[in-house]
Amino acid sequence: MISFPDVSGLRPTPDRVRETLFNWLGQTLYGRTCLDLFAGSGAMGFEAASRGAERVDMVEWNRMVLQALQDNLKKLACTNVFVHGQDGLEFSLRDARRYDVIFIDPPYQSDYLPRLLEILPQRLNENGVVYVESGAAIDVPPPWQVLKSGRAGQVHYQLLQIAQN
């Protein structure tokens, strides 16, 4: 049984939003590399792994949530998922890997989102996408373009890609 401690502020992505996102991405992520920053429950990363992602890196700073992610990783025996106990912004600044899909759902009250949108173009493979979840609608700066967007209650979500010239 997968379990998580009761941690104030943890906002798992609603099921219908997750279903919409994976419809946008296609039903399979076979061979793709994924990064789940601010992983929280890990739902996005574990879903990507279950859909054939070659590698999924999950980043979570909260120690209790990190421990739950590590426990669930053992229970699920996912050999293609790697959990990192770091702040998502710090990880993005230091990690040199490139990804096909990046999921970001930073704390809503933080200033992380604009900073991440500056960093992440260097972390994407060609034709890579970034899924952004936020508490308010955002206007994305260049070089980003919005491929798809939606809203479910208080959750605003967008699928972004670097604009092709």
UniProtKB/TrEMBL annotation:
The keyword Transferase applies. This is Methyltransferase. SUPFAM superfamilies: S-adenosyl-L-methionine-dependent methyltransferases. PROSITE patterns: N6_MTASE. GO terms for molecular function: methyltransferase activity; nucleic acid binding. It holds the Pfam family Cons_hypoth95. Keywords: Methyltransferase, Transferase. Gene3D superfamilies: Vaccinia Virus protein VP39. GO terms for biological process: rRNA methylation.
